[in-house]
Design a protein that fits this description.
Layout (H helix, E strand, L loop, with lengths): L2 H18 L13 H16 L5 E6 L12 H10 L2 E6 L5 H8 L5 E4 L2 H4 L8 H7 L9 H6 L17 H4 L10 E6 H7 L7 H13 L4 E5 L6 H6 L7 E3 L5 E3 L6 H13 L13 H9 L3 E7 L2 H12 L5 E3 L10 E3 L6 E4 L6 H11 L2 H9 L6 E3 L5 E3 L7 H4 L14 H5 L8 H10 L2 E3 L1 H4 L8 H21 L4 H18 L1 H26 L1
Parallel strand pairs: 1-2, 1-3, 5-8, 10-14
Antiparallel strand pairs: 3-11, 4-8, 4-9, 6-7, 12-13
Length: 529
């Protein structure tokens, strides 16, 4: 069933699931058999009788994940509290998950952002079913989280990380909103008398650095985040839908000012501030290497990269540092947050011990589990003040040499909600924290847009995939055009291709789906306050 067919019953299903989670029935709804569940329960009972600690296998579907093993004081404390051993495998490439699902040979738990592969009753257990199967295990999921994670079949299979409803934000006076960043060499800026107060300062600064340091790369950009900081300063959205003044949705390629953004990046390339090699980078480490090596003046990346790179520079014994531009340089600055949940934990149909896996999710998604995995051990790695904000005994934005020995922070990225990350550095004086404090007032948050999902293999899903691939290919042609006229011509060609692929079809779908989803979401929020 596609979203547009399912939205009419989503609210009633959420309420039904909420009620069912408190019941005691062990009947399943989405393909689970009593034999499957009984087998997993029998396995756990046998292990308990033999005094064995159960082992769960987990696959992390992120090739960039900084940890390869579940080790260190924090993971060990997590295992101790649950009475379980965890064995983790990190994805070797982007094809591993799809092959795993196709073969049916899967680990017990999968962490992935690829909802389309895993939100399927033939592949994974719906969490709402498991709430009914194991009512004795406390796993209370807020109706809003159930609603925003609802799949096309009216079940929810995970709780996507990085989302919290607005009323949770309202509980805290200090919220930090993360996003892209722009940093520069402070020693060179001081030497040349450079400053960043408006976006026009980027042009002036790049020109002066190019003249003073002809052998240095004036500016680089991270291959994942590219020029998202510039888009944010210009008030532009980099993907998906945006809401117009009349409440309708349009695809991001139609935004006013988008051509000006492309022209500016192209201008920097034509003036030699950006290198052709940078467009070929496939790894974030490639950009970090040239920045930490002292070969670049400025860099577009993420807001924590300045602090992170500086830690690596210090470890190398070098004396230069990067400064992050922490003030917004444009009155148009807007950070669009349409996130309703990213990567999440899924219990697969291959799981040999469903009850133990379910206990793991229940604890990991709880406040205590999230804070343990993200922040560390209370009293050792952090303390909490009277208002609930943590102060860390370590550099929360440190590199792996700081975090990895104890297994800090990154395992928390498996399950964290938005609040655990948004208040983490509220008491910090780091550049990253200051930038996030300043950005918060410019956030435009609308999780309902993120709920507009395309069913696997649907026309909309295929159009979306084709659009993404087309834009990825055309971006380089636009950015590296040989003249301003060629840049504009390439941009117009991209828009024309988007029309031919079916951009209008996605807009029709969004405007059919969005109003009802928004009404149901708003009603749930109002009822929860």
């Amino acid at each position: 069933m596609k979203w547009k067919k399912a939205t009419a019953v989503l609210l009633s299903m959420v309420m039904a699931v909420t009620a069912a989670a408190c019941g005691s029935t062990r009947q399943t709804q989405g393909g689970s058999s009593e034999t499957e569940i009984a087998d997993s329960q029998g396995t756990e009972s046998a292990r308990e009788e033999n005094g064995q600690v159960p082992t769960l296998t987990m696959f992390v579907d992120e090739t960039w994940w900084p940890y390869e093993k579940w080790e260190g004081a924090i993971p060990e404390e997590f295992e101790k509290r649950l009475g379980v051993n965890i064995e983790v495998t990190r994805a070797a490439d982007d094809n591993q998950l799809s092959l795993m699902v196709a073969s049916g040979d899967m680990p017990d738990i999968i962490c992935s952002y690829r909802y389309q592969y895993l939100a399927d009753p033939q592949v994974c257990y719906p969490l709402d079913e498991l709430h009914e199967t194991y009512p004795e295990i406390e796993f209370n999921v807020d109706p809003i989280f159930q609603f925003v994670n609802k799949a096309a079949d009216d079940h929810y299979y995970t709780i996507g990380c990085g989302f919290s409803p607005e009323y949770d934000y309202d509980k805290y006076d200090k919220i930090l909103s993360e996003g892209p960043g722009f940093m520069y060499r402070s020693d060179i800026a001081e030497e040349l008398g450079l400053e960043f107060k408006t976006l026009d300062d980027l042009d002036d600064t790049f020109a002066k650095v190019a003249e003073a340091y002809p052998d240095m790369t004036v500016c680089s950009f991270n291959c994942a985040h590219k020029f998202n900081w510039l888009m944010q300063q210009l008030g532009l959205k980099g993907n998906g839908y945006y809401e117009t003044a009349d409440g309708t949705l349009k695809w991001w390629l139609r935004q006013d000012g988008l051509l000006d953004y492309y022209k500016k990046v192209n201008e920097w390339y034509r003036k030699g501030y950006l290198t052709a090699e940078n467009y070929a980078y496939q790894s974030e480490d490639e950009t970090k290497e040239i920045c930490v090596g002292g070969n670049v003046f400025a860099n577009f990346g993420y807001d924590n990269h300045a602090d992170n790179y500086n830690a690596a520079i210090t470890a190398n014994g070098d004396d230069f540092r990067f400064s992050l531009v922490t003030n917004e340089l444009s009155d148009s600055c807007t950070a669009y947050d349409t996130n309703c949940g990213g990567r999440g934990l899924y219990i697969t149909r291959s799981c040999k011990d469903v009850e133990t896996a379910y206990k793991l999710l229940a604890y990991a998604y709880g406040e205590e589990g999230m804070k343990l995995l993200m922040w560390g051990i209370d009293g050792e790695d952090y303390t909490v003040d009277a208002d609930g904000y943590p102060t860390f005994t370590y550099d929360f934005q440190g590199d792996n040499s700081v975090l990895q020995p104890r297994g800090l922070k990154y395992w928390g990225w498996l399950v964290h909600n938005a609040i655990v990350t948004s208040i983490a550095e509220a008491n910090s004086e780091s550049q990253t924290a200051q930038d996030r404090k300043n950005l918060t007032e410019h956030v435009n948050r609308n999780p309902v847009i993120g709920m507009i999902r395309f069913a696997t293999d649907s026309d909309e899903a295929n159009i979306n995939a084709k659009l993404d691939e087309m834009v990825k290919n055309q971006n380089t042609n636009i950015f590296m055009a040989e003249s301003e006229e060629a840049c504009e011509e390439a941009f117009n060609a991209m828009i024309q291709q988007a029309e031919q692929i079916g951009m209008g079809t996605l807009e029709d779908y969004g405007n059919t789906t969005y109003p009802e989803l928004k009404a149901q979401y708003d009603e749930l929020v109002a009822g929860t306050k």
